[in-house]
Design brief:
Number of strands: 39
Oligomer: single chain
Number of domains: 4
Strand content: 25-35%
Largest sheet: 11 strands, mixed
Helix content: 10-25%
CATH architecture of the largest domain: Alpha/alpha barrel
């Protein structure tokens, strides 16, 4: 650990307050050391308030960015470790640069968009532990012996961007023998407590460059060059430039074009602009270290004489392995999958954010719980959600409320906490652990989070009257189309769901309060029906209300079927759901025997629906169904073109189109039902995909040939598999080893 290391800092300007527009130049630190013998192993451990980049002997220690990651720094300080054995020599030098990151730079949105939510200065602590072959151990730690300076990074901010002046480059400052005579002694701030007591290892993989995409110049205006990446991404541009000393490049980023120009109105207060000032010394590479942007397009303004020799886009996100894939005969559905996957990539940046471009980029709990099943099918998210759930627990209020975002910015307002729980957001503390156990089978996730869910339910019980809550403080079925669903109805839907989740989690780990939460669920269910079910309908007559109520067990099949069929027909075969309902609509339709309606919605080309955005150029999932329309153009105000929430339908592609249904009670895909719902109307004629489990790959494909569908599944031997074909008759045509082939006919 870093228990003996001191935290070091370097004042590069007057410390700023929360309302300051920009921060100070980045501090750089270095230290030389020599080794005394053969090294068997060496490890570097580092933490920072802010974000860092590390070098050893002139080389990057790792390819990570924005480390050590984002947490509530008042509760813990993230620690990362690196094996540096292969980088060491007899004589060595280590260097580190710091950026403002989330701890010091801007966090939040609108009137809560503030700096210094956790600290007014960047600091770091570092320990190198060298184990010699003869058993000796030597430690090199941060302390007063380190040298400090400021250099080419004049300011950095995740939202505002980065300014780099190559005229102030420090050169290879992490090499042994470097002349640091102009550097000064590092500061060692004094504290009433030790920051080292807050250190915790970070289990999730770091943010890295996952893809490099070509960038095409598509025009110019007002002396500015316009570029297109061809894909809405989260990342930065890397430019190779040559020009005169002092020439300046200003790179501005945006998701869309308006009348042939870069559209940035939806960024709000986030400037999303990087600046390079050239040294004039031949070819220069510009790559910001301590920021990222959500963009597809960029404009570059050149002040002075300079030319761009090469430009590429570097896509950054948390380094999570891909484990799932899907494709089918319908190109719109394929694009829905692809756009959702890109939205997940672009928003899995240390925490699962809502968007990567504007002044927000927060870990909204509602978005996370709605999307977590889709996310786990697409990527190995085991450690990722373990870390995020720790953030959620850190943010839980004293009264038991689970906040709307985590980590919770310290902005001094109720903007993200609320005086009450937000239904569909607070329940992330139950939904994500339940889904996590289903996919990975580790009961620790339940033991870690069930107490927090119980505290939330204690709050709900104290806040309810005759098992009903009033729903204040909620967001509802966020960004639905047409008439909304009553907030109090949604509050009580999720009150029941939270109790049901608690009962199920208790059952899995043998917690003796299972019966208590089963009774609570029944009581809330009965109260819900008395309050919201009348004359054959819910008091909120919406697709979301019926789909969620049915999936949560509060209305039965006959009650849900006719009403869902009617509300879809009234919408002319379109969906009207918002963030909450979108997860449940397609599964509910299939469960109720309305599979053709589900396939009609997923393949719909007109507004509202996924296809409308795709036919209008979307490469990620939009925040609104009408983020842009031909009739009205851009929706003003809050308008992201890279939100993953409405991509929760991809869960349905895996579970209902392919038929992969994990047994939640068994956990970890040890038991599986393959139960596809086929499309007989010809909207989709074939589909295939896979999901990689700890037991091996589950691979599925099916194809319609005339009146028959041939369904082929490969299932690893370690999985107990059952087959079911709703609405169809089936016979096994062949089984060999782990492959099953069925012939299916419509019942």
């Amino acid at each position: 650990m870093l228990m003996h290391a001191k935290w070091i800092a370097h004042k590069t300007g007057e410390y700023k307050d929360r309302d300051a527009r920009y921060g100070n130049p980045s501090p750089y630190f270095r230290r030389e050391f020599s080794l005394d013998g053969e090294v068997s192993r060496a490890e570097l451990a580092v933490s920072a308030l802010g974000v860092y980049k590390l070098w050893l002997n002139g080389q990057e220690v790792d390819g990570d960015y924005l480390s050590p990651g984002w947490v509530d720094y008042s509760k813990k300080l993230p620690l990362r470790r690196y094996d540096i054995t292969h980088l060491l020599r007899a004589d060595n030098a280590v260097g580190i640069a710091l950026g403002d990151g989330w701890a010091v730079g801007h966090v939040g949105s609108n009137y809560t968009f503030k700096r210094c939510c956790w600290s007014d200065r960047v600091e770091c602590a570092l320990t190198i532990t060298v184990e010699y072959a003869d058993g000796r151990v030597e430690k090199i730690i941060t302390d007063e012996s380190w040298k400090a300076a400021d250099g080419e990074i004049r300011r950095s901010d995740i939202y505002m961007g980065e300014v780099i002046d190559h005229r102030l480059s420090l050169g290879d400052f992490s090499t042994f023998g470097y002349d640091d005579s102009a550097w000064v002694q590092a500061d060692v701030p004094e504290f009433k407590f030790s920051r080292n007591l807050y250190l915790q290892d970070i289990a999730i993989p770091p943010v890295v460059v996952k893809h490099i995409l070509p960038v095409k110049q598509i025009g110019s205006y007002d002396g500015r060059l316009l570029y297109d990446v061809g894909q809405n991404i989260a990342g930065v541009l890397r430019c190779v430039v040559r020009g005169e000393r002092g020439a300046t490049l200003i790179l501005r980023h945006g998701e869309m074009l308006e009348n042939g120009r870069l559209y940035t109105k939806n960024l709000r207060k986030a400037e999303a602009a990087d600046t390079l000032i050239l040294s004039g010394e031949g070819e220069e590479v510009f790559r910001p270290l301590f920021t990222y942007h959500g963009f597809q397009y960029a404009e570059i303004e050149i002040v002075g004489q300079a030319e761009i020799l090469d430009i590429q886009a570097e896509v950054m996100y948390t380094d999570l392995p891909a484990v799932g894939d899907f494709s089918c005969s319908d190109e719109i559905v394929n694009k829905i999958f692809e756009n959702t996957l890109w939205g997940q990539r672009d928003n899995f940046m240390s925490v699962p954010t809502d968007c990567p471009q504007r002044d927000e980029r927060l870990g909204w709990t509602g978005d996370s719980q709605i999307f977590c099943q889709t996310a786990m099918y697409n990527m190995d998210c085991r450690a990722y959600y373990e870390k995020y759930l720790a953030d959620v627990r850190d943010a839980q209020l004293g009264n038991g409320v689970i906040t709307a975002v985590a980590p919770l910015p310290h902005v001094g307002s109720y903007a993200y906490t609320g005086r009450d729980a937000a239904a569909g957001w607070s329940e992330a503390i139950g939904e994500i652990p339940y889904t996590h156990y289903k996919m990975y089978g580790d009961k620790k996730i339940i033991r870690d989070n069930l107490p927090a869910l119980k505290r939330l339910l204690d709050y709900y019980e104290a806040d309810s009257h005759h098992f009903l809550r009033d729903g204040s403080g909620g967001y509802g079925d966020w960004l639905n189309v047409g008439k909304g669903t009553d907030l109090s109805l949604i509050a009580n839907l999720y009150y029941a769901h939270a109790a049901d989740l608690a009962a199920k989690l208790c059952e899995i780990i043998g917690d003796d309060e299972q019966e208590r939460y089963e009774r609570l669920y029944e009581n809330v269910r009965d109260a819900f029906r008395r309050a919201y079910w009348a004359e054959g309908r819910l008091t909120s007559d919406t697709q979301s209300a019926y789909a969620i109520a049915y999936k949560f067990g509060l209305i039965d099949e006959s009650e849900a079927r006719d009403n869902l069929a009617r509300t879809v027909a009234e919408a002319d075969g379109h969906l009207t759901t918002g963030f909450l309902g979108v997860k449940y609509l397609l599964p509910a339709l299939c469960d109720l025997g309305l599979t053709e309606l589900a396939y009609g919605i997923i393949t719909q080309r007109s507004y509202p629906g996924w296809g409308y955005s795709i036919l209008n150029g979307a490469t990620t999932i939009w925040e609104h169904w009408n983020s842009w329309t031909k009739e009205k153009g851009f929706l003003p105000g809050m308008n992201s073109f890279n939100h993953y929430s409405l991509g929760a339908c991809v869960e349905w592609l895996y579970e209902y189109c392919l038929g992969i249904r994990p047994d939640a009670a068994a956990g970890g895909l040890s038991k599986l039902t393959l139960a596809p719902h086929f499309n007989w109307s010809g909207k989709i004629t074939h589909a295939h995909g896979h999901y990689d489990t700890a037991h091996g790959r589950i691979a599925v494909e099916w194809e319609r040939k005339g009146d028959t569908i041939v369904y082929t599944a490969e299932v690893p031997a370690g999985i107990d598999v059952t087959f079911a074909f709703p609405g169809a008759s089936a016979r096994m045509r062949e089984q060999r080893d782990e492959t099953y082939i069925y012939e299916i006919r419509r019942a």
